[in-house]
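[job 0417] fold request received: Peptidase S41
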Amino acid sequence: MRLLEKTGLVGIGLVAGVAISLHFAALAEKATVATPLPVEELRAFSEVFGRIKSDYVEPVTDKKLINEAINGMLSGLDPHSAYLDAEAFKELQVGTQGEFGGLGIEVGMEDGLVKVVSPIEDTPAYHAGIKSGDLIVKLDDTLVKGMSLNDAVKRMRGKPGSKIVLTIIRKDEPKPLTITLVRAVIKVQSVKSKLAEPGYGFVRITQFQEHTGENLASALENLTKQNQAPLKGLVLDLRNDPGGLLTGAVGVSSAFLAKDALVVYTEGRTDDARMRLTASPENYLRGNGKEDYLKNLPDYIKSVPLVVLVNGGSASASEIVAGALQDHKRAVIMGTQTFGKGSVQTVLPLGNNTAIKLTTARYYTPGGRSIQAKGIVPDILVEDPSTAALDSAFRLREADLDKHLANGKEAEDKPDTTSKKVQPAPDNKGDAAKTAPAEFGSKNDYQLTQALNLLKGMRILQGK
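[job 0417] inference complete; emitting C-alpha cells
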C-alpha cells in the first residue's frame, strides 16, 4: 500500500505563472491495483530505449528519456493530464494562495501555437491588452511551433521584473503584434464588490482561491451595511473566471442555497473518485478547523433575487456554481455558454518532489448534467456587443481541445442559441470587433446593465 497525497484540480489548463485551479483533499491511502504487465509492449519500450541510448546522434541521459516517456503517457490521454516536475509542482501549490509569479495569462494549445484563453484581471498581460483568442507565435526570439505547452509556460515564467517579448497573431490585424511584458508577482484579488445602484449589489469572483468563500461572506455583509437595508437584488459575476479550489465553489454555492442542498457530485472508476458535495460546512471547510464563515450571513441572502453572469471564459469551479444555482432554480444564469471544463484532476505526488496530474472523474450538476465538453447554457442569452465577434471566432472551449474527454452523458455541442430568451444587442454590430471591451462592472458593461434590468423587472413582478 502506498500513501498518496491527493489534490483534485478544477481548471482549464495551464496559466503562465501557474494559476492552475485546484482543491486540496485529505490524505488518502490507496492500494495499487495489481494488473498483468503488458510484456510485449514493455519489451518494445525497452528496445526503443536501448536504441536511443546507443544510436541517437547525441548522448541522452536516462533521466531525460524516462521523464519524456512519462510526459508522453500523460499528455496522450487528455489535455489536462500532465507530469509536473519539481518546479511545476511547487508553483502549483503556491498558486492556490492567490499569489504567483508570471504574466497572468491563461493559455491552451492549438495547431502547435499557444492560444490565449483569457488574461487574468489586474496582471501585466491584462494591462498590456492581451486578448482572448490571441495566438502566441514567438517567445522572445524562439518560435513556439514545436514546443509543448509545458515548455512554453516555463519560458513565460521568470523572475519578477524581467522582460519577455511576445509575438502575437490577432484576428483583423494585418501583421503580427510585438508586445513587451514585464513579469510580476501576480496577486489575484479573488472577490470584488460594490453597490451597482442603490439597493442592487455587484459581486465579482475572479478566481476561486483558499479564502474566496470567506471573502464573499464579508462582501455580502459589507454591501448590506452600505445599502443600510437588505439588497433588492444581487449580480454574481463569474465571467472569465477560470475556476479554482473546489471548496471555494462549494462555499460560494452554499451562501445562496438551502443547507445540505446538493452542490455537485463526481463519477469516476474508483471509490475515492466518487463524491457528493452538499451545502454544509464539512464540505466547504474540509476539516481545517475554521469557524463557519457563512453562519453570520443575513438570512435574506438565501432568497435575494440573484442573476449570475457567465461567458466562454467561465470554467470548472465557475461552472459548478452556475450549474448548482441553475438546477436549484436559485438564480437566473445570464450571458453566453461556458467553457465546459467538467473533469476532475488528481495530483499524485511522486519521488523527488515531482507529481502526476491525472484525470480521475467527471463533474455533474445536482440535476445530473455533465459539464464536460458542454458547459452551462444560460437561461437568458446575452452577448457583449463589444466582444461578440471575437468570441464567436476565437473563443476557445473544452470541446475544441485535442483529445478532450467526452461528455459521458450528453452530446457535445457548440455554443447554444436556444435559451429561453435572446437579448438583442445594440445596432452597432458591424463595429463590435473594433469596440474596446468594457471593463466588467463598469457603467458601460452591457451584460451587467441587462442583469440589473432583469432584477428590477423581477422586483416589480414580486410587488404585484
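[job 0417] notes: The chain has three domains: 2-32+39-90, 99-187, 191-342+362-463. DSSP finds eleven helices and 23 strands in the chain.
[job 0417] exit 0
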